[in-house]
Amino acid sequence: MRVEKSSSPDSEQEQQQQQQYATNYYDPDIAHPATGEYDDDPHVECPPHTTQRKLVAKIDFRVIPVLSILYLLAFLDRTNIANASIFGLREELNLQNTQYNTALTIFFIPYIVFEIPSNILLKKLKPHVWLSACMFAFGVVTICQGLVQDYSGLLATRFFLGLAETGMFPGSFYLIGMWYKRSEAQRRYSFFFGSTSLAGAFGGLLASAIGKMENVRGYRGWRWIFILEGLLTAVVAIAFYFIIPDFPENAEWLSDDERTYVQNRLRKDQGRSAAERSIGVKDVINVFRDYKIFVGGFMYFGLIVPAYGYAFFAPGIIQTYGYSPIGTQLHSVPPWAASFTFAMIVAYFSDKFKHRFAFTLLPICLAIAGFGILITVHDNTRLQYAALFFVTMGVYSAMPVIVCWFTMNLGGHHRRAVGTAWQIGFGNIGGIIATYSFLPGDKLNFFHTGYSICISFICLSAASCILYAASILWQNRMRDKAPRDLGLTEYEKTEKGDLSPDYRYLL
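and the corresponding structure tokens:
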């Protein structure tokens, strides 16, 4: 976004720009760079044996695939209960009325409460230790979920599954945000977040195959879904202990000059990170003094309701279109696949134009159109099925843009660690609402209640995005008009993060 500067002589503007670069904070004119995305920055010297493009590609290879696989398995283990319900979970455990919905809900209690403590532990223990340990834990719990004998056992395993998974999403987003500049982050975030779509597609295919293992060794097909998918997660977690990357300051797979260059380019873009200092209670309290933190939570909260509403209940919705259990699983795959493709297209253009706001609203409008069709059309299964594509493409494309936009606008380790965990943790309260939005009896009225709830919360997300955009635009303009030199030391600027007067937000 180009920010209009107050009128002044050319020499004075040049002097102000030089002063700004000297403090290692990012150029306010980020939307209109003079050179390409990967041109070597003249203010941060790249090591002579490589280029910025090659180094970013090296980071991509080490960071994004690993975290994407990690979250794919986390989301798969979280939502495979929807596939298991099609293969007899409700009947064998004798779940009555809303007991299935309650089992979905209890997952979110520890998942929400322990988001911020998890990110603090991530920084303290290092990502490769904390994330791999959490991954192994939820793999084991998923296996146990396939061995439960009654409703109480299902509740217990779902609770501990939420506890084990609490660090996966905010921790991964936090880690990615500490590796990339804001102008290049969206495609990486969207590819990572797209693992949820791939998990949905992969889960449907896997469930259609595993479901055929009915009564193998005395276990029904739904049990084998949990056992085999949980076993896969646990085995991968052991390998990931040696593969998951840490923060740039501790990356042993980079040479000393590469590590210094990565830190310097991020410092110029985002300010100093204060990675060397631990996060205390005072840091957490200071983060919540900024009203934008709460707005960011509502941006994500509004989309979580339709996102989990679809993830948990899509097989049941698709089954009402007249498909068999195997056919239902197979028909659940294409909407997920389409959402991944569309999300990557949105991310490409968002990075290309160095803009986020419009790329949240456009997918949101697509999702609203999809739910609108589902509410009004009840006699055309092809159109209803097509509407599911609009829903997944819209919701699962807007969500990574919202999280990336908010996360990458938070400066420094402390504000980013706490702010990211807050947004994800608060947003996932919507998961509780989603679990009770589609009740068994709602089939009789074509799930009108669930669809209406989803549209309402999508509109809440859109309104929050507009408020957040207006807030950061106003703050950028106020900082442009304010005096450049307020007498703050580098330490004080580092502690303020994105609240520093030198910092400019990305619209």
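(Above: one complete record from the training split.) The first helix runs from residue 10 to 22.
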